[in-house]
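Title: Prediction job returns without error message
Component: structure pipeline
Severity: low
Priority: P3
Assignee: unassigned

Description:
Job completed but the reporter wants confirmation the result is attached to the right record. Sequence as submitted:
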Amino acid sequence: MNDSNEAPTEIWYDSASTRLFAVERGRGPAIIFLHGGLGDHQASTFRVGALARSHRLITPDVRGAGRSVFAGELRWDLLADDVVALMQHLGLDRAIVGGSSAGSAIALALALRHPQRLRALLLVSPVYAGQDAGLVPAQRVAFARMHEAGRRAPAEGIEAVLPLFEALPPPIRDAAVAMVRRFDPASLAATTRWLASGIHPFARLAELEALSMPTLVVPGTDPEHPAELAERYARTIPGAVLGDPSGDLASTIEVFVDRGQPPSCQQR
């Protein structure tokens, strides 16, 4: 058992002519966990850092976020291939891969594009229902607000996006503001532009029927991450299990990857 508070190891690796950043902590089976929009690896550590007690936890700064500076056009296939490049850099043929919010969509894009690379798939607070379904109203509003703030960041600095965090509880808000202040403004603008584009990582939900790796789906708890969408994922992906969003996420994942089924889950 490893101490989840041990100092992380910094990782720099190249993918598609871009220098990208990640950290790893712990030892054991590898888990790569991807953060959502306007987050970086620290957001992943906040959600699932305790996994480093029993696993090799790898938390990238997704291209365009944190120290992975990138101001170009983002695509789901590019972000999925970045995960492959990270695995190749670390000498991993396969890994457990997951993420939260937009990070779950990158993990899903990887599962559809490179299924042989995944030992298991972790989808936390999924966002996207497929291009044919589009975004729900709450998602359109949230992404538009991000884009409006993000497009001003290159000229006005990171302060342009700080109002997006005002509604958060003070401790979480302060941590989020401290995190985003370290972002590159042009990279942040690229990320918010991409999110606002409304491009989904797959065309139709039925495409998820092709997935065959063990899959855990944990519903979101807000209008931007509808619980009903997670339930549809779990019904569509063969053998997927639906986790309890009120439980401790790291513990839920630990039990799932060790035993194949988390506590308080439903087999689909």
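Comment from assignee: result matches the submitted record. Residues 263-268 have pLDDT under 50 and may be disordered.
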